[in-house]
Amino acid sequence: MEPIKNPTPARPDDVQAAAYNEQYNRVTTMIQHYVESIGLTKESTYNPKNSNWLWKNGSATIEVFIQTINFPNGSRRDYLRIFSPLLEIPTNNLLSFYRHLLELNDLRLGVKLCIAPKTQTVYATYERDIRGMDYQELTTCIVDLELWADELDDQLKEQFPNWSN
What we know:
The chain is α+β, with helices and mostly antiparallel strands. Helices cover 42% and strands 27% of the residues. The protein has a single domain (12-159), classed as Yope Regulator, Chain: A, CATH 3.30.1460.
């Protein structure tokens, strides 16, 4: 009887890529479970072309996706990203408006306010590397962003009624 031959060992970069893919797939599954837990379906929320989920929470539109950043050395990092558009940037009193947004960044823990490149829209956003993320943390991130976005979009539009569309 011949001894069993070991398969060629995986290259370290193959093992790392497989781990990244497994983690990415695990978090994707967790996002889908969250969507279903709030009574929505994959068909009504998931856009395969953009690989994102989109739904409403109160007056806020919530977008969730995983963004992959590839590095020249072949490694990568995957980030959970959650966005919600809040209002359009005003055309006047910009200094006081931006100051107010920075002050809100200090008060709204875990959520930051930003302006996406090449847009005139203020977004509430949350980002986190998916390494080590479990379902409880994922739901906390999404629920927090949903809460703050629904509150902030209304609050900012009320405070700056002539500045939003």
